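Progress against Task 2.4 (sequence-to-structure conversion) is shown through the following example record, which the project officer requested during the mid-term review.
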Amino acid sequence: MSEPIISVSGLRGTIGDQLTPVVAARYVAALATTLPKGSVVVARDGRESGAMLTQVILATLAANGLNAIDLGVAATPTVGIEVKEHAAVAGVQISASHNPRQYNGIKLFGPDGRVLTKAKGEAVLAAYAENRAGWVSVDDLGQITQCNDPHAAHLARVLATVDVEGIRQRKLRVLLDSNHGAGSLLGSRLLEDLGCDVTLLGDLPNGKFAHTPEPIAENLTSVCSVIASGEFDVGFCQDPDADRLAVIDQHGVFIGEELTLALCLLQALPATASKGQVGNHRSTIVTNCATSSLSRILADRFGCSLKQSAVGEANVADLMIAENAVFGGEGNGGPIDPRVGLVRDSFVGMARILDLLTTSGLSVSELVASLPPLAMAKDKMTISTNCLPGLFDALTVGMPGAQASEPDGLKLDWGDRWLLVRGSNTEPIVRFIAEAPTTSEAQSLCDAARQVAQAMQ
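Structure tokens generated for the chain above:
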């Protein structure tokens, strides 16, 4: 038996080895010791091991004197909304996101409907390390109840952000690939309510992934082929817990994960700009520091301010709250609309992009062509975390002419291109992320940084 991969936001591991019923019970019991009395909502994506873990977690919560509300299969952003709908003290999502089928995980939410803050996550980790629990007697056991429709509130919130009647009149032809995860349950309802002609792939949430679950180019070739051979206006692809959205244009071309947030901003920011400034205040959007410069370009175009956080959904949410941001997200296909919730949300992305297609009258490929061409490259290598400060110093000296900052690791920005070098929080590796006008130029930045790192070992 080996240890699960664990952090302030949750844990994940392989079923039967890193993640067993014993580990799940220990972790959720640790969470329970940090909570006041009340209710906790519990959901899962479509993974085959999800039903088993659900029973363990529901029982553990009840055995610690907490009421447990079982949402069944539901998307990660839906959990955040249901926490607030039920005035719950916490939420638990059972999902391993885009990891392979042998994995599962547990993601935790606070009473504000967002993923746990770092401080609260550290409190759970401390309780887990000390094997704390608050088992109660029979008189104090919590109740376990079922939620009949966990999707209705989420659906209503998303629909309230777009021109529903306008989209309905377009009768857009949409392919949705949920890859047998949680996304189809709400996704199909959303698209039907928006009057779309919907084709579903992988709509049964049974965890039997039809392709590798991360929604990136190399995993979506079969979906692209379906769109290319049919008559669709757009294709949407979700990861198993439906917090990330990939977009395929009407020709069957995957447009790139960074373009999901950019298209959402292209739809959201004109309305913000039309309201004008209040005094010297400009509307703010928030992304993490590894997100494409398209966000900054669009913020400048519409008179908004861009703030960037460290990588991680919790960090983006923290900064969005602090800045009272009108929109945010991460460049991996994770838009965040605070009017809906402070969680990455594929359904927000779908609705916003359909609204953009409607109001602009343009196709997806035409919208993409209207944005500046930028390309990303990513790489990683094994390195001791002790080497990182020296690596950052060497890169700052060895790659001159850039504005250096340390939002999360080291970021070097030359204006028309940038390089981010950051260590992993869970593994002894360093990641290189670069953006430039062309793929070869972005890759050259990663290669140069890797050479400096290799010379230090």
